[in-house]
Amino acid sequence: MRPQPLICVRDVEASSRWYQRLLGCQSGHGGSHYEQLVANGELIMQLHDWHVQHHHGPIGNPELPHGNGVLLWFEVKDFDAAVVRSKELGAEVVLPRHRNPSEGDGGPNHWEIWLRDLDGYVVVLASPYGTADGNWKPPEGGPFRGH
To answer: What share of the chain is helix, strand, coil (3-state, %, to 5)?
Structure first.
């Protein structure tokens, strides 16, 4: 199974450029109504115009808060470079760069930064598990369990 999130946006082309720059990914489709963003040949995200209904009808209501309760979470190997790119984009910072957990052992022991995209969705960039300060590393053989 591979997640393939789709979000509705006001301007597909502008959002595509923003995410491509932030995540270092590429356009896999292009266009003003729909976009596929790919990294290493894999689909990582889809963008869809709020007002284009295609064969499926409306996907959401653009008048409601965008992404309420949803975090678009991306693990990036080049975390520090991605933070620099977020600053170059002028991305709004929701939570500045921090370690998760903030202290002690346990948790994923990685770095995170929480941002807002052009439409107000919260985007989390995270370094790979076990890459933050300290000696604790999550158990091998699977992702960290718990929060």
So the answer is: 15, 30, 55
